[in-house]
Design goal:
Blueprint: H1 3-22, E1 30-34, H2 40-48, E2 53-56, H3 59-68, E3 74-77, H4 86-89, E4 95-99, H5 102-111, E5 116-121, H6 138-144, E6 151-157, H7 166-185, E7 195-197, H8 204-209, E8 214-217, H9 219-222
Parallel strand pairs: 1-2, 1-8, 2-3, 3-4, 4-5, 5-6, 6-7
Bound molecules: pyridoxal-5'-phosphate.
Pyridoxal-5'-phosphate is lined by residues 34, 36, 57, 78-79, 159, 200-201, 216-220.
């Protein structure tokens, strides 16, 4: 078995164990394989292994991969988004995880030819270095983009703080789930907000236990390019 297959098997086991622990169905969780750090060749192998959701965080990286891999797959844009780059990517992606400014919504509205499933990025940890809407501003922000019919707010996304303290990471995820439930409860037509994008290589198991429906797993799944497959 290749290293890639071994990593995938381990992750599957971990995901199933987290699901079992809290009584969730494995089928409710989508794995976005984050391929930003590896070649198109490795990315293709990941796709061939059965992953239907691939994530990239830079417009140039995304476009290069799409060129190399013309097959039908869901491309997720997960990185910081500059308004001027939206036109390049918007019709190539199924999901955008980093909606955090009105100017981005406006540009998606202008450039997209179909409605894009978006996650509003929330800075729940309050770290100055992180982008995202603050929990306090979230409701107003989502209401402010209701007229943009090319932007569907299907859920919320966060990046946990890069720390070892599991309890603190967990409390961030719990907070996210409450925010998701709150927005979902508003029953806004443009923001069904049923989904939660949270959890990366180091914390996807905690995220699943706390309700993640999309986990974004990079290195733990795709490995590092320097290591061989
Ligand atoms: C790189 C990245 C990931 C994946 O990170 P890993 O730690 O490699 O799993 C997930 N989400 C975002 C937004 C990223 O930029």
């Amino acid at each position: 078995m290749s290293n890639l297959q071994q990593r995938i098997q381990q992750i599957e086991k971990n995901i199933q164990a987290s699901c079992d622990k809290v009584g969730r169905n494995r089928s409710d969780i989508h794995v976005v394989a984050v391929t930003k750090g590896v070649s198109s060749k490795r990315t293709k192998e990941v796709m061939d292994a059965g992953f239907e959701h691939l994530g990239e965080n830079r417009p140039d990286g995304l476009m290069a991969k799409i060129e190399d891999i013309p097959e039908e797959v869901n491309w997720h844009f997960i990185g910081n988004l500059q308004s001027r780059r939206i036109r390049d990517i918007v019709d190539h992606v199924s999901h955008i995880h980093s909606l955090s400014r009105t100017s981005i919504a406006k540009e998606i509205q202008k450039r997209a030819t179909y409605p894009v499933d978006c996650f509003v990025q929330v800075n729940v940890s309050g770290e100055a270095s992180k982008s995202g809407v603050s929990p306090e501003e979230l409701k107003d922000f989502i209401e402010s983009i209701r007229h943009y019919d090319k932007v569907r707010v299907i859920g919320l996304m966060t990046m946990a703080p890069d720390i070892k303290d599991e309890a603190e990471i967990r409390s961030n995820f719990i907070e996210m789930r409450k925010l998701r439930d709150y927005i979902q409860g508003l029953k806004l037509a443009h923001a069904p907000c049923t989904e939660l994008s949270m959890g990366m290589s180091n914390d996807y198991e905690i995220a699943i236990e706390e309700g993640a429906t999309y986990v974004r797993i990079g290195t733990a799944l795709v490995g590092e390019e320097s290591e061989g497959d």
